[in-house]
Amino acid sequence: MSQLIDVHTLAGLLDTPQLCLLDTRFSLDHPQQGRFDFAAGHIPGARYLHLDDDLSARVVPGTTGRHPLPAPGVLQARLQRAGLNNADQVVVYDDGAGLFAARLWWLLRWLGHTQVKVLDGGLQAWIQAGLPISQETPRPIAEGNFSGQPDNSKLIEAAEIMQRLDDPAMQLLDARGPARFRGEVEPLDPVAGHIPGAVNLPCADNVGADGHWLSPQQLAERFAPLSRSEQERVVYCGSGVTACHTILAAIEAGLPEPRLYAGSWSEWITDPQRPVARG
Q: CB–CB of 259/198 below 8 Å?
């Protein structure tokens, strides 16, 4: 079953009582931009969740990465305040490519809510289709009854990765851009490079030039040269956000769900004993 939904299918669901529509637009350069963009126009009925304030825990300098996972109970409460009920179909979206929407998609699945899809093409596809935009401030709603339990089998910690760096049964996939992977540039973190043994699979290439996700066949072709079918895939990025995009891509490609290294590169480099590769 696809993890994506197209704009016309979503348009037909807008009046469905059990639809929970969540906007996750965000800018790393301007962290409050998503709130302003939401106020300027959003899909009717959507609620806004902020990457830093709602979908991440506080950063602990020298210990965590840039976007630590929120505590399960805290995330559950935030989703309840957004009106989420256990029986709801959730649709998440951002500006287009799904880089931030995929984070919430993963978090919901981590807590056991599998009725969640990412809007293919995001808000840009919605606008291009001529579908309505609302500037109304969302009205207060009843708190939802969502209750979840984290499935930590979806995660892997740095200590296990360290122990398995030479394990041929594990394949590390780095979802960042090639220049950051090679250590040629590093605009966000104090150390450049990648985890030894990782291969580069940039998440930006999971979508085409039109902003829509590649087909399952095209995504399968992206993964095919990088790891054998029996290998356990582990995905990381800079801070554990866009790695979720590649996890979604793997599922769309028909592969077993990879595990997420949530701390990712920005956590890995907090310990100088952890090795760094370049090139």
A: no
Q: Which residue has the higher pLDDT, 140 or 231?
A: 231
- CATH (domain of 17): 3.40.250.10
Residue 229 forms part of a structural domain:
yes
Catalytic-residue membership of 237: yes
What mean pLDDT is reported for the chain?
A: 96
pLDDT in tens, 240-251: 999 999 999 999
CA-CA-CA-CA torsion for 10, 13, 19, 24, nearest 10 degrees? 20
**122 and 27 part of one domain:** yes
Catalytic residue among 20, 203, 237, 244: 237
The parent domain of residue 119 ranges over 4-128
DSSP 97-155: S-TTHHHHHHHHHHTT---EEEETTHHHHHHHTT---B-PPPPP-PPP-------GGGB
Q: Residue 273 — pLDDT band, cuts 50, 70, 90?
A: very high
Evaluate whether residue 115 is within a structural domain. Answer: yes
